[in-house]
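Let us work through a complete example step by step.
Step 1: write down the sequence.
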Amino acid sequence: MSDLQLLSTWCEEIGVSIGGEEKRQIFLYLSELVDWNRRLNLVAKTSKEQILRKHFVDSLSLVPFVPDQRCLKLLDVGTGAGFPGLVLKIASPGILVSLLESSEKKCVFLRHVISLLELDGVDVLTGRAECWGSMDIHRENYDIVVCRAVAHLSVVSEYAFPFLKTGGFFMAQKGPAGLREFEEAKDAIGVLGGEFKEEKEFVLPGGGERRVILVFRKERATPPGYPRRNGVPAKKPLQNVPRGTFSKKPCVC
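Step 2: predict the structure and record it as C-alpha cells.
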C-alpha cells in the first residue's frame, strides 16, 4: 500500500477527511521533516511511515474538535516540529495559528516549512510558555490552545490557560496515562479557570497505541499569578491544590 493510500485509510479510521491539496502539503512537510531529522533530531528517528502515523495522523485526530472558522486563533504550546498545530493549519486553512516552541533549531525548521508550503496566517513564537503567557499581547488572546505530549496535564494546564480567552477551549492530546493525569490535575485546572467538557479515547491506526483527547473550557479568567516563573510549573506542579493556594507574581522576562 502506498503512503497516500495509508494516509487515506488511517484518516478514515479516525473519522477525518482531507482533500488532495492538503495531502500534497502533508507529504511535502513529511519529506522535509525526514530530511532535516537526519541532522537535527527533530523527532525520534524511525521510518517515514511511522512518522506519518505517529505524528501526522495523531495530530489530525484533533480536526473534529477544531472548527475551520476564518480568524479563529489557535495556539500550539510546545509544538516541537509542528505537531499538532501546523498539521491543523494544513487541514483547516482558515484558522490563524501560532506555534510556540523553546528550541531555536525547531523554530528554524518550522519557518522553513511554513515558507515552503506558502502558508498564510501562521507564525512561530520562540521561547517559554511562562514568558509568553505573561505578556498582555498574548494573555487571554486565543480561542483554542492545543498541547501534545509535552508534560503532565497539571503542568501543561498552567502553560495553556493563561493564553485562553474566557469561553475558549484547551485540548490536550495524551497517551494511556491521560485519564489518570486528569484525576491528578482536576484541582489545578479549576484554579486556572477551566472546567472539563469532554474526552475522546481511540486507538491510533496502524499500531494500536491508545490515545486520549481531553477538552476543557475556560470559564473564568486565570488569576494573575499564573503562569509562575520559568521552570516552576514543571518543578512544582499544581496537583490537588485548593483554590487560592498560590498568589505569586507572574513571570517577568
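Step 3: interpret the result. The longest helix spans residues 20-40.
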